[in-house]
Amino acid sequence: MIRVRFAPSPTGYFHVGGARTALYNWMLAKQSGGKFVLRIEDTDAERNKEEWVDGICNAMSWLGITWDEGPIRQSSRTKRHIEMALSLLEKGDAYYCDCRREDVEERNKASERTKQGYDGYCRDRKLEKSPTTVLRYKVPADGSTTVHDLVRGEVVVANENIDDFVLLKANESPLFVLANVVDDIDMEISHVLRAEEHLPNTPKAVLLFNSFGKEAPLFAHVPVLVNEKRQKLSKRRDRVAVEDFKDKGFLPEAMINYLALLGWSPKDNREFMTLDEMTAEFAIEDVGHSPSFFDEKKMEHFNGVYIRALSDSDFVGLLLPFLEKTTWWQGGDGNTAKLLALAPITKERVSLLGQATDLLLPVFAPEITIDEALFEKEVAPHASLISQVATLCANLDQFDAPSIEAMLRDLSATSEIPLRKLQSPIRVATTGAKAGLPLFELWEQTGKATVIDRLLASVQDASK
Ligand code: GLU
Question: At which of 273, 289, 309 does a domain end?
Answer without folding.
Answer: 309
